[in-house]
Amino acid sequence: MVNDTALYDDVAAAKRVMHRRLLRTARPVVLTAYQEYSDNAPGLVNMPEPNLTQLQKEALLHAFDVETVPLKVLRSQLLDEFIDGAKCPFCGMGETSTLDHYLPKEDYPQFSIFSQNLVPACAACNTLKRNRILDEQAQVRLFLHPYFDNIPTREFLRVDVGLSAEGLQLSFRMTRPPSLPQHAFRRLESHFKLLKLGNRYRRRALIKLGDQYRPLKRAYGPEEDASRVAARLSEEAEDLQNEWGTNYWLAVLYRTLANHEEFCDGGFEVIRRRLRN
Q1: SS3 helix, strand, coil % of the chain, rounded to 5?
Q2: Which three-class secondary structure state does DSSP give residue 39?
Q3: CA–CA separation, 11 vs 119, rounded Å?
Q4: Which of 32, 94, 152, 209 has the least C-beta neighbours within 10 A?
């Protein structure tokens, strides 16, 4: 747990005279904004405009862009929280190598070094998300907040599987469970589309399946037992689901393939053909 007040003071103290003075005069406004963020999260749609001068805003941006020792410690601390799984919380795939400002620091400089606004992310998600956060017309957030949003446990991620002479076709898509409100599903859907997760999951899935070819071949065996292939895929899906949730992309993939009769009954050979190409 980060003490953001202490962090702010430590960063200010580490700055040179001009920036230190600006950060200290901005302190009451920024700390009030921190509390408003915590109180409103994950909403964060109509955050009040803080009473900051242009110079104070620039100093707050400088506080993140020109790292001090306290900020380097914070960066390491936040990134280390995800090091065991090394999975970006936005996509569930990439290595967490950057810090994303959930509310963009250019628009919300008061949160430039606020730990609750700094999310470890992979470079791809950080780049794709950019400074977008709000659908101005609908006044809804475009992305899930990994710290505050509760991910529905009902299935909303699906993958369609096709086998043909050309190989294995995968298509990830979103579908709304009847119990999930429309506004909540819209956020899930925009998160999925804007981070291009469908195509990214497809590419990574084909790589992961390449690693599964030999284990699936052994499970199939000389008896050509499709049930053993299905059982192996189901076990993999269950382990991943228990660790990462029902809608974890790789769990969804293995669960779907376990129920695909043609794939389990020797159809997985398309993986080998793809590896040879």
Answers
A1: 55, 10, 35
A2: helix
A3: 19
A4: 32
